[in-house]
Amino acid sequence: RKCLLSRMDDNQVEVLEVSASNEIKKLDHIIKSMLGSMDGGEISTSAYDTAWVALIKDIDGNDAPQFPSCLQWIADNQLPDGSWGDDKIFLAHDRLINTLACIVALKSWNIHLDKCEKGISFVKGNLSKLENENEEHTTCGFEVAFPSLLEIARSLDIEIPDHSHVLQNIYAMRNFKLKR
Length: 180
Prior knowledge:
Blueprint: H1 2-6, H2 10-36, H3 47-54, H4 68-76, H5 92-108, H6 113-126, H7 129-132, H8 142-155, H9 165-179
Helix pairs in contact: 3-4, 3-5, 5-6, 5-8, 8-9
């Protein structure tokens, strides 16, 4: 770099510095706008994670949730179609695992049963969409997490049919991964 600069006159160096400065400002603006679109870079609220936190029992031994605000968030954020998840884009894997987790959380505390029923209808009506979804859109670990959630749901008397071809494929993928 020093060799290149030593061959340049002062005007050329100044132009180069201005160009670099403008490029830095441009990149700074791009980064700030990207972070601004992500609410300051914070992680967005996850229905799945919120549902798991909502399952935590009160540390004082009461038969109550430790974090009732999580249950309220779940109740307040059900989408009109009965699901939970990203309202801007529909990805079947994401919507189904989020929805089942929220159903399990609400049913565990035996609250908002109307929302549970609406969620169950969504799950039953959309399981078949898993089969046609692009593999790139599959939630990481779905084939392990979703069957586990189904087992928890069944232990809470939540009826989700398990005889479908789609679910059989998911169970087979889970078993394959767990054997490795």
